[in-house]
User: Which sequence fits this backbone?
């Protein structure tokens, strides 16, 4: 590592919601494994984008989380995945949405960042692009768990009974776009978006976010996770951010960019993270969580849900938790 080089730092999240006690250990273990993998890459001299891609891949492969295998099902019973990765040094980004035949959408997003003059591909076009660069296409059934088939059936029964959704938003929400996961209590067994932000020894930031979306969502629905400035953003001149939670309010506020702009204006990442989540609720009654990393290695984590799986790996060691 170069003299006076920044200390490599990685922050990850595994979703912000009411994590049941029986799922707590799996959430912390998954986050810890993603941290170990991604931070090792930084320690070996890898880039921030390398570390983010690796950490998010681990979370996508872990069925504990709503990304990759084990994701929520659409109303048609299929998995549709979205992901974005962004390089803070160049402001280059790569995103995919509504992909059904890729195991790791964050890897497809990285290919878009590195190999395409475009920023964003969706559906079959995203899959064709990824396949043309060596990613194998899989049967969508490989991403579907029986657990999720049961959840979908139960959700559709609740929806037909007219029960409202307070999985992310709570009873006080006043946004006109609600999540599509019907639930009759705030402890409904959900799981959510994953993400990572990293600072490498070269002083560069990167961010990545990946999701399977909301339970029982309409096919073709795209949330905040893969949209630049909404669920993900990175700029060496401000910060790197990944968000999780109820996507529609986050999109309306372009909350990722809002948070990084606060850092650029002089706020610490810790303060900007808290302000972003407060703003989300004050303006639109939204619920979710945020991880934020500045170019000096300062970290910010905040959420207004009952819990959020998170972890930090830096020169002080590796730490994980389910609330912050």
Assistant:
């Amino acid at each position: 590592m170069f003299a006076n080089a920044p200390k490599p730092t990685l922050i990850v999240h595994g979703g912000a919601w009411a994590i049941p006690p029986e799922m707590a250990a799996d959430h912390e273990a998954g986050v810890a494994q993603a941290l170990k993998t991604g931070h090792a890459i930084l320690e070996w001299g890898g880039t921030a984008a390398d570390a983010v891609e690796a950490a998010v891949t681990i979370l996508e492969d872990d069925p504990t989380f709503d990304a990759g295998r084990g994701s929520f099902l659409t109303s048609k019973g299929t998995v549709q995945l979205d992901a974005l990765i962004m390089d803070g040094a160049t402001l280059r980004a790569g995103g995919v949405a509504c992909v059904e035949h890729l195991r790791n959408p964050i890897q497809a997003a990285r290919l878009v960042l590195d190999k395409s003059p475009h920023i964003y591909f969706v559906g079959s076009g995203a899959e064709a692009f990824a396949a043309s660069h060596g990613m194998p296409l899989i049967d969508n059934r490989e991403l579907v768990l029986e657990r999720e088939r049961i959840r979908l059936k139960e959700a559709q029964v609740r929806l037909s009974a007219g029960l409202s959704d307070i999985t992310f938003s709570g009873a006080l929400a006043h946004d006109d776009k609600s999540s599509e996961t019907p639930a009759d209590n705030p402890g409904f067994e959900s799981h959510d978006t994953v993400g990572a932000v990293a600072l490498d020894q070269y002083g560069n930031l990167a961010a990545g976010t990946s999701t399977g979306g909301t339970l029982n969502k309409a096919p073709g629905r795209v949330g905040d996770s893969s949209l630049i400035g909404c669920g993900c953003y990175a700029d060496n001149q401000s910060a790197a951010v990944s968000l999780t939670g109820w996507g529609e309010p986050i999109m309306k506020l372009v909350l990722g960019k809002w948070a990084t702009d606060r850092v650029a204006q002089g706020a610490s990442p810790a303060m900007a993270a808290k302000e972003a989540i407060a703003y989300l609720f004050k303006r639109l009654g939204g619920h979710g969580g945020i991880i934020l990393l500045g170019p000096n290695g300062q970290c910010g984590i905040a959420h207004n849900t009952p819990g959020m799986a998170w972890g930090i790996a830096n020169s002080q060691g590796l730490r994980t938790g389910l609330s912050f």
User: Anything to note?
Assistant: The helical segments are 21-43, 48-61, 105-115, 123-132, 146-160, 247-253, 255-264, 269-284. The radius of gyration is 18 Å. Confidence is low (pLDDT under 50) at residues 166-174, 176-189.
